[in-house]
Amino acid sequence: VTWRSTAAPPSERPGERRRAEMKKLYGEDSPKILAMEAAMQLTFDRNCDRKQPKYWPVIPLKL
Amino acid sequence: MQDDWSLLGPLQWIRYVNKRVTVTAGKDEERRGWLLTVDPVSASLVLVDFREDGGTSVHVVMGHAVEEVQVLEEADEEMAERLRTSFLPSSSCSLDP
Amino acid sequence: SICTSAASEADPEQLQREQHARSVLRESFLRCLLSMTDKKVQFHMHEKVKVAATFGASDIDVLNFQVSNLHTPIGVQKEALIRCQDVISFTFDA
What's the fold here for domain C37-91? Predict the structure, then answer.
């Protein structure tokens, strides 16, 4: 990855806002929590892509 | 016992860690075990139950379903250590920086 | 939908204690979810529904569980998503 200044302002960098929110919630441990969450979400997304699971039950039990 | 479990917040939840608790949830469910942690996102409780047959059961009660949490007893040093080591892998995780 | 308490907004030390407590709790919970991968899990759901499945993964907001070989009252569903709102509790052997 090359970091060059582009037309996009820094505030629009993806993940930046989430990083700030995590920092507020988890303080100095936020990078560790962020990394663990990213890995877990990646597994979830990948499994869903590959296995195409359907909701069970089809209609929520509790609305 | 408490107004709304899911609104207590981390500083309150963490006081339940290493306590043996009874959790009432849903309409008529009751779960008992040593409280390992509370998820600060969903307020779900993780209870560890060392069974008499030597096995270890883990119960997770979803925060939204919690009706009541009652403290039964506090872990001694030995139980606290057992809770730390018996179930979750040690903190040397590949995800750590 | 988590937010910092009003007290910790005003007091930096209180905020730090709260952040530390939150990260300790969250880390153990995430480890717990990770340890469930490929384990047989029994779900107790609303309306007295009880099902068993092999755990796959959870999303980080704890809204959905991705599971396999879900044994429902009317048969086995090979791949399924369970809504966490439908679940009261679940149990597995460590």
Answer: SH3 type barrels. (2.30.30)
> Which chains border C (3 or more CB–CB pairs < 8 Å)?
A, B
User: How far apart, in whole angstroms, are the C-alpha atoms of residue C25 and residue A63?
Assistant: 28
> Which tokens is C21 given?
């407590």
User: Distance (Å) from the C-alpha of residue C6 to the closest C-alpha of chain A?
Assistant: 13
Instruction: Please give the residue range of the domain that contains residue B61.
Output: 5-74
How many CB atoms lie under 10 A from the CB of residue C13? Answer: 8
Nearest to B59 among C2, C25, C91 (CB): C91
Integer Cα distance of A59 and B3 in angstroms: 30
Range of the domain at A28: 15-63
Round to whole Å and give the CA distance between B33 and B73: 10
Per-residue pLDDT in tens (0 to 9) along chain B, 97 residues = 446 999 999 999 999 999 999 999 998 899 999 999 999 999 999 999 999 999 999 999 999 999 999 999 999 999 999 998 877 765 544 444 4
d(CA A53, CA B52): 37
Residues of C with Cβ-Cβ distance to A30 under 8 angstroms: 23
